[in-house]
Amino acid sequence: MKYLLITLVGIVHFVSLVPGVPQKTFQEIKEEIASYGDVAKAIIKLAVYGKAQNRSYERLARLVDTVGHRLSGSKSLEKAIQIMYQNLKEDGLETVHLEPVRIPHWERGEESAVMLEPRMHKMAILGLGSSIGTPPEGVTAEVLVVTSFDELRRRAPEARGKIVVYNQPYVNYSSSVLYRVQGAVEAARAGAVASLIRSVASFSIYSPHTGTQKYQDGVPKIPTACLTVEDAEMMSRMASRGARIVIQLRMGAKNYPDADSFNTVAEIRGSKYPEQVVLVSGHLDSWDVGQGAMDDGGGAFISWEALSLIKDLGLRPKRTLRLVLWTGEEQGGVGAYQYYQLHKAKISNYSLVMESDLGTFLPYGLQFTGSDKARAIMVEIMKLLQPINITQVFRDGEGTDISYWIQAGVPGASLLDDLYKYFSFHHTRGDTMTVMDPEQMNVAAALWTVVSYIVADMEEMLPRS
């Protein structure tokens, strides 16, 4: 995956967000940012080399070892939320509270897939979120293997009454995940009785990857699950040789009414513009496999760490730094959407929204979405991270939970690191603390803190388009 580093020069003036407030020249803003050099060094020293080193890792390990995975609607998620509420209160953060939301409640139950022909072979699978279950006796049918939606449409007459197996190549996550999300609908349209999707993964050691999928009104709902890359490729080879493949699929998945849950919120209140907000975030929920340590325990805990580091240094930014630990992200940002609906009336007060949800390995830099003028400011801020040699600003400040704000014009930022490693463990049983590295989390926390604090403390909000 290639990213383009954009540095902007020659920008003379920035548009002020507040009418009547004198505009600063770009040179004045550069000088203001440069004045934070000692603060940035103090944050880096405390997070990477000082008393706070490894703290985010140790806090995360304590939570995930205690509660395990945190599936939407589960008791373990609600236990984690209550623990985090207490943790944030005990950490001395301000306005700690829970904001009620309604989230989906799905349980996978027992599940299995066995190849009956051309040989007996028990396959590792993971049902996809919101999938229906099979009858108790399961679904037994011949397999049709396809490599794309186009191939399925061309061969639609062959799909009726069969289990469609997708062996789509992994191009990148955003392209390949469409098969997981839409695979069941496309197979059902062709008359299939179930669908099995090759796991969306950059690397596999016989590891199925779960995730959400979406049914569509007017299209029959069929059971759907992910299978391993290895089994998808094997069946593709078998089919190319003309072998008849038969699978028995059993899934005990059930959907329940939406459940009560919470977004977890804490703040350091601003000293001069408390109504204005810089938001840092990660999601607390996870899938029901592994420990949800990488996705997204790491992102949630470096966001907490940002407030802790600022508090430990006795800093108080001019505008409010708000931590939000989202719930229901894995089902499409359900909790974040409800937060947006509740707070969007004050959208003009949001200077920057930040979400870490692509791993907390050693960062390459910061992804950013915003106006050219705001990007130029972020380039200057990232220069202050030269002591840890992470200064790049990339495009596309991704994040399911901050997308609503970004689409409405609020600048957005996310952490960018090793996506190959991330998507090797993504939504698998391997997403445990063993994937995490405390030293890399320290560096990620330092970057996250420097950026969020400076944007929160600068005299002017980030300019919008």
Beta content = 15-25%
What share of the residues lie within helices?
25-40%
How far is it from the N-terminal to the C-terminal residue, by CA? 27 Å
Strand order of the largest sheet: 1-10-12-11-13-16-14-15
Rg computed from alpha carbons, rounded to a whole number of angstroms: 24 Å
- The strand count comes to 16
Oligomeric category: single chain
Structure description:
With 465 residues, the protein is of the alpha/beta class. Helix content is 35%, strand content 23%. It has 14 helices and 16 strands. The strands form two sheets. An eight-stranded mixed β-sheet has the order 1-10-12-11-13-16-14-15. It has an eight-stranded mixed β-sheet with strand order 3-2-9-5-6-7-8-4, sandwiched between helices. α9 packs across α14. The two termini are 27 Å apart. The N terminus is likely disordered.
Note the main attributes of this structure.
8-stranded mixed sheet, disordered N terminus, elongated, alpha/beta, 465 residues
Topology readout:
Layout: H1 26-34, H2 37-49, H3 55-67, H4 75-90, E1 94-107, E2 111-117, E3 121-123, E4 125-127, E5 139-146, H5 149-154, H6 156-159, E6 163-166, H7 173-189, E7 194-198, E8 224-227, H8 229-240, E9 246-251, E10 254-268, E11 273-283, H9 293-312, E12 319-326, H10 334-343, E13 350-355, E14 365-369, H11 372-382, E15 392-395, H12 403-407, E16 412-416, H13 419-425, H14 438-457
Parallel strand pairs: 5-6, 6-7, 7-8, 11-12, 11-13, 13-16, 14-15
Antiparallel strand pairs: 1-10, 2-3, 2-9, 4-8, 5-9, 10-12, 14-16
